[in-house]
Design goal:
Length: about 525
């Protein structure tokens, strides 16, 4: 019975493979070769696919400013430029980070469209590159629609000399999601049967993200999301996905908790610089360990390294094709080494739920214990998920991991209801909970699910989107805003449409409400 889901997935996109293609290109590739030269080389599509991933490395660099910093999880140092304005929901449409995030996602989409426009020229052995392009185009639009709401869905390389952008107006949110889901499904058809490489899009990742898109659209399709997620969870061994956790054996409860703490750090490619523990508390600090970053919990991640990362060149290698000149390393600014002593400082609200007693495992993998001092309300408590010793942080950026899939499955089974006792939901939920060293739940409410996601994915840019998706953003963020004298209103769930884009095409793009 388990294998029936795979047959369903394989049938999703057969028709999507029969669409037409364009011949003209407009792209400065990260290699020294021109587009025409790449299309004539045997492995040119591989280079083009690498260029898509290279372009995406710029996206996480400021994503947390626009997502996690606009949640109740974190705050910015009061001396940190205009970053406190993000946290206060007081963002100007002319803000550079708002425009940069928008343009970096569309720059990646342009690279992906170069492959898609020429997909019928791809040799058989490089068909996976076409699948990766559809995947990345969907992912970038998914980022954009969740951040800006009504956006253009750009499905070809645009000729700027012909004003082709005027053919791509802002679309209603539901239409954007339809196109995102179709692109993810098309990528599945191309990527099915390819060997898993967690640094590159895969069929399994596309299935899970299509499900997340089904759950995120204005009218969620819980049935389709549940089907897709079940196809991965019921066959997780075949896909190569699982939680990193040490099963409870004959060791003491103290030893078990120490193993769980190390396991949780390993998810993010981090290891303790000392193996010692004192009363269950790590003696050392976390350091990035590239050998740990490719692990079974990671479904898809973006590689960062000083030079090369698993067959695609990183933007940190000083290639001359940068779309933006800001640093691509996401981890530096998120820690105490970052500008003005960091921006992702834990909020007092979050420190009420993230304590060593309440979260005996996740606390030590998420919070920099050396900076934790709840007795001083103004103390800056930093995160520990992205340790870095310098401006170029080596931590990979995890786009999707298996814990997210398990909790999304619970959400799909709940289907908009307030509670569930479904055995499948309980099993998935308690896998995540027990890995955190906590007792299992026997009834799951929407609030319990939100609370679990909050502590599991803190600093991973999920909280704001979770609140919006589950219909709790106004309730939670309005209270957080009122308690902290901030400026949240219901329109501020979404970012302003970049003024730079509106100025480029006067009277074409509509500004979002509230700005």
């Amino acid at each position: 019975m388990k294998k029936i889901y795979k047959n369903i997935i394989a049938c999703f996109s057969a028709a999507a493979l029969l669409t037409g293609c364009a011949e003209e290109l407009d792209l400065s590739n990260p290699t020294a070769l021109s587009i025409d030269e790449l299309l004539q080389t045997e492995n040119g599509f591989q280079f083009l696919a690498n260029g898509v991933l290279d372009a995406y490395q710029k996206v996480p660099a400021n994503e947390f400013l626009l997502t996690e910093l606009r949640s109740d999880n974190v705050r910015a140092n009061s001396e940190n430029g205009n970053y406190p304005d993000f946290n206060a929901f007081n963002i100007d449409p002319n803000n550079g980070d708002v425009a940069t995030y928008y343009s970096n996602n569309y720059a990646t989409i342009k690279h992906a469209n170069t492959i898609i426009d020429n997909r019928f020229l791809a040799p058989e052995k490089y068909q996976y590159a076409v699948g990766e392009a559809y995947f990345m185009r969907a992912l970038c639009h998914f980022n954009l629609v969740r951040s800006y709401q009504n956006i253009p869905y750009v499905d070809k390389v645009l000729d700027v000399t012909k004003d082709e952008a005027l053919d791509y107006p802002q679309l209603p949110e539901e239409e954007v999601y339809e196109k995102i889901i179709e692109d993810f499904k098309t990528s599945i058809a191309y990527l099915s049967g390819e060997s898993l490489n967690r640094y590159r899009p895969s069929a399994g990742a596309a299935i899970c993200l299509a499900a997340k898109a089904y759950l995120s659209q204005p009218n969620p399709n819980y049935t389709e999301a549940e089907l897709l997620l079940a196809s991965v969870i019921d066959n997780n061994d075949d896909y190569g996905f699982d939680l990193i956790t040490t099963p409870r054996g004959g060791n003491s409860i103290t030893d078990h908790f120490e193993n769980l703490i190390k396991d949780y750090g390993h998810v993010f490619g981090n290891a303790l610089d000392s193996n010692g523990f004192t009363d269950g508390v790590p003696d050392g600090s976390w350091v990035n360990s590239p050998a740990l970053e490719i692990n079974k919990e990671v479904i898809f991640s973006i590689a960062y390294d000083l030079a090369l990362s698993d067959n695609y060149v990183t933007a940190d290698s000083d290639l001359g094709s940068q779309v933006q000149t800001d640093s691509e390393s996401h981890s530096f600014a998120m820690t105490l080494q970052g500008p003005s002593n960091g921006v992702n400082i834990a909020s007092l609200d979050f420190l009420q739920v993230m304590t060593p007693d309440l979260q005996p495992v996740r606390f030590y993998g998420s919070i920099d214990a050396l900076s934790y001092n709840p007795s001083i309300p103004t103390n800056d408590t930093f995160n520990a998920k992205f340790p870095t010793a310098g401006e170029i942080g080596d931590n990979d950026w995890i786009v999707l991991r298996y814990a997210d899939v398990l909790l999304l499955y619970v959400e799909a089974i709940m289907a908009g209801g307030e509670t569930t006792t479904d055995s499948r939901a309980l099993d998935a939920f308690n896998q995540v909970r027990e890995r955190a060293g906590l007792d299992p739940e026997f009834i799951i409410s929407k609030q319990i699910l939100l609370d679990e996601r909050r502590v599991e994915f803190v600093y991973e840019n999920q909280r704001l989107f979770d609140l919006i998706r589950l219909g709790e953003a106004d309730r939670v963020l309005q209270k957080f805003s009122d308690d902290n004298s901030l400026f949240y209103t219901n329109e501020k769930k979404y970012l302003p449409f970049p003024q730079r884009e509106r100025d480029n095409l006067p009277n074409f793009y509509k500004q979002n409400d509230g700005y």
